[in-house]
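Incident log, support desk, overnight shift.

02:14 A customer reports that sequence design results differ from what the structure should imply. Their input is reproduced verbatim below. On-call engineer (initials T.W.) acknowledged and began investigating.
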């Protein structure tokens, strides 16, 4: 079965152009599935039946996996078996009659505009690190990019003069995102005064660099966000995508249309973007209960 998983991952990479992180997630989920099947004496995908798959899903539930993780596992398994049938590597799809559970979409945690402002202000300083970190936070909030997109951004992906960033998202899909004057000024300052000090002789095209002159990591971005949230005395939980969620929510709060926000976020399905309208509704409910006389 593991050889067929390799073929499937190659198909996802070459034919569908999925991002490396997505490929790793598929491989991780399917490897666990293959190992479980082998322990049950099933080492060939042709011999898998519906009972094997339901047993595997139940075992994941017993291990304490949350509903969303179990649903993701099942989605990977179903896609894998459909691929095998389509490529004539199997005659039947044992996952065909297994329904993927419908899940409530979690309302993402967002910061208020005041909190974002405090966080960005907390990053201001004269040293190269402060200048770099301020540019990262300004651009992150101005564009709503994913963390993975931000760390892979190239210098020539940002047009400071015109005011836009060319972002390469999931599946190598390109999108253009406008950015405001504050983000443009912060990135320009970083490129002129801080980045030349970080870049080594072997000049890299990546925009944001670590102190060693290499591409900054996603973990470093995460640490930067936590560092300045703490400095700004924000006590609520902060996650890597908090600024992305805040970007979308604040745009909708100020009257942006859903389709435009969908395009800037790079969502292929507008239902994914619609979650941010729920965030606004949740905030309205909180305000109502707080200030209405009979709330």
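02:41 Re-run completed on a clean worker. Output:
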């Amino acid at each position: 079965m593991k050889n067929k998983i390799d073929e499937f991952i190659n198909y996802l990479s070459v034919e569908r152009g999925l991002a490396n992180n997505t490929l790793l997630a598929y491989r991780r989920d399917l490897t666990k599935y293959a190992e479980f099947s082998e322990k049950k004496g099933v080492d060939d995908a042709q011999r898998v039946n519906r009972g094997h798959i339901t047993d595997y899903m139940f075992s994941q539930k017993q291990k304490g996996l949350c509903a969303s993780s179990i649903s993701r596992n099942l989605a990977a398994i179903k896609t894998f078996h459909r691929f095998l049938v389509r490529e004539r590597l199997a005659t039947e799809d044992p996952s065909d009659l297994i329904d993927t559970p419908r899940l409530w979409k979690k309302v993402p945690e967002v910061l208020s505009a005041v909190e974002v402002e405090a966080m960005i202000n907390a990053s201001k300083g004269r040293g190269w690190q402060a200048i770099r970190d301020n540019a990262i936070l300004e651009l992150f909030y101005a564009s709503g990019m994913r963390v993975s997109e931000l760390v892979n951004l190239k210098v020539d992906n940002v047009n400071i003069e015109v005011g836009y960033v060319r972002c390469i998202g999931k599946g190598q899909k390109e999108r253009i995102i406008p950015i405001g004057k504050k983000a443009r000024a912060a990135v320009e300052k970083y490129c002129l005064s801080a980045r030349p000090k970080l870049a080594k002789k072997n000049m890299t095209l990546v925009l944001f660099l670590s102190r060693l002159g290499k591409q900054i990591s996603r973990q470093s971005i995460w640490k930067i966000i936590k560092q300045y949230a703490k400095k700004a005395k924000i006590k609520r939980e902060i996650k890597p995508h908090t600024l992305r969620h805040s970007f979308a929510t604040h745009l909708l709060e100020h009257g942006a249309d859903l389709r435009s926000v969908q395009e800037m976020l790079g969502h292929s399905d507008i239902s994914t973007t619609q979650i941010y309208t729920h965030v606004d509704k949740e905030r309205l409910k909180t305000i109502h209960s707080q200030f209405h006389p009979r709330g």
